């Protein structure tokens, strides 16, 4: 048993996928003890195999020894062919199963088998798709239909945000918005795409189109890290706005400010500018999910590009200019110090070279040789000639 455990599992619905062949996966919202929330996708056959292994691990609690001792919930076996109707009809059973599972004694509900099964996988973040095949179809479980014990698991509160402008979705996994819509945010991703729900609809929404109800969202954003954090560009991008940077795949840059809308301020040499965070990967990390994500979703719109944005807050968002980012950059400051140091060193060298000249005693005039006797007799006056006679 580890320190990490699940405090709540909610069935959101299911997806109909067409790659590599048609199949169905259930969507679960998993809430962890560190308050993080993740959406994971599992086939029913996977869930049933997980269930069988759990029963083998706890034979007493599964009723294998004495049926009266069973506390692990029942789960029907998968059918020979699981179609859409059976997938849909099974949702109520799965919702109850998850509720019971999380509320079992800790030795079961918090065991590694349960924790590892619901951890986020590579395919959860970036489902394997093919551009030539139809995109997945999402079928959400109506929120009003979940009048079951899952509603009394404790204080599960989602943040409510307001749409500041209309947004037209570009894929079936996204959700369209109208200015003024109130949405509950299920999951926030660093790439600027948030998973939200609005009544019976759920889908991904650009974070730039949302603002919290209690005030501007600067408090949610990290402070600039002027020391910089090394990242590697995973996809080339050509700047569209003046304050963006054009980079090529493989370039190494430094991230100095991570913003909620998924457009981070980065530094390349002495230049700073905005770049899509989803095109970046932390230096030294194994390349797992970034490139797959790039194939499935584009960069979200920038907050500054939203037209007719109507904020309910009088206080405007804090704006930091690129010149401020550049001048506060640790690298910029260090370079300035180095330049000043070099200049000072050069000045000191000049002074040191001049000091010996100033400190040397002035040269005394040379004593001329004494003139010969013949020279004095020929050129000097009578008075001088008498002195040598």
From TrEMBL:
This is NCF1 factor. It is found in: Cytoplasm. InterPro entries: NADPH_Oxidase/PX-Domain (IPR051228), NCF1_C (IPR015039), NCF1_PBR/AIR (IPR032136), NCF1_SH3_1 (IPR035756), NCF1_SH3_2 (IPR035757), P47PHOX (IPR001655), PX_dom (IPR001683), PX_dom_sf (IPR036871). GO terms for molecular function: phosphatidylinositol binding; superoxide-generating NADPH oxidase activator activity. GO terms for cellular component: cytoplasm; NADPH oxidase complex. Its main location: cytoplasm. Keywords: Cytoplasm, Phosphoprotein, Repeat, SH3 domain. Residues 352-361 have a biased composition (Basic and acidic residues). PANTHER family: NEUTROPHIL CYTOSOL FACTOR 1-RELATED (PTHR15706:SF6), SH3 MULTIPLE DOMAIN (PTHR15706). It comes from Chloropsis hardwickii.
């Amino acid at each position: 048993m580890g320190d990490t455990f699940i405090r709540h599992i909610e069935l959101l619905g299911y997806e109909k996928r067409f790659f590599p062949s048609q199949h169905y996966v259930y969507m679960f919202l998993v809430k962890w003890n560190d308050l993080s929330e993740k959406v994971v996708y599992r086939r029913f056959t996977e869930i049933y195999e997980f269930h069988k292994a759990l029963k083998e691990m706890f034979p007493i609690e599964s009723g294998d020894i004495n049926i009266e001792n069973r506390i692990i919930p029942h789960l029907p076996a998968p059918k020979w062919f699981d179609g859409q109707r059976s997938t849909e009809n099974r949702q109520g059973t799965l919702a109850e199963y998850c509720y019971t599972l999380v509320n079992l004694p800790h030795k079961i509900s918090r065991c590694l088998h349960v924790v590892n099964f619901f951890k986020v996988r590579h395919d959860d973040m970036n489902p394997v798709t093919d551009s030539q095949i139809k995109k997945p179809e999402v079928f959400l479980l109506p929120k009003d239909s979940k009048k079951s014990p899952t509603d009394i698991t404790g204080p599960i509160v989602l943040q409510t945000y307001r749409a500041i402008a209309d947004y037209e979705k570009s894929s079936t996994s996204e959700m369209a918005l109208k200015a003024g819509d109130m949405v509950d945010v299920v999951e926030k991703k660093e790439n600027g795409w948030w998973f939200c729900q609005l009544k019976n609809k759920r889908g991904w929404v650009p974070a730039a189109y949302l603002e919290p109800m209690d005030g501007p969202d600067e408090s949610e954003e990290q402070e600039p890290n002027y020391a910089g954090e090394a990242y590697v560009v995973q996809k080339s991008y050509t700047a569209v706005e003046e304050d963006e940077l054009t980079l090529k795949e493989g370039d190494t840059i430094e991230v100095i400010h991570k913003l909620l809308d998924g457009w981070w301020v980065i530094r390349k040499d002495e230049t700073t500018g905005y770049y899509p965070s989803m095109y970046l990967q932390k230096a030294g990390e194994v390349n797992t999910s970034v490139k797959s994500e790039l194939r499935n979703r584009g960069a979200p719109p920038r907050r500054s590009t939203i037209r007719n944005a109507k904020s309910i807050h009088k206080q405007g968002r804090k704006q930091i200019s690129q010149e401020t980012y550049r001048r506060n950059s640790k690298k910029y400051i260090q370079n300035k110090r180095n330049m000043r140091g070099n200049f000072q060193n050069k000045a000191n060298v000049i002074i040191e070279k001049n000091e010996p000249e100033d400190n040397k005693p002035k040269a005394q005039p040379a004593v001329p040789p004494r003139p010969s006797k013949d020279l004095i007799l020929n050129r000097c006056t009578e008075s001088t000639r008498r002195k040598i006679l």
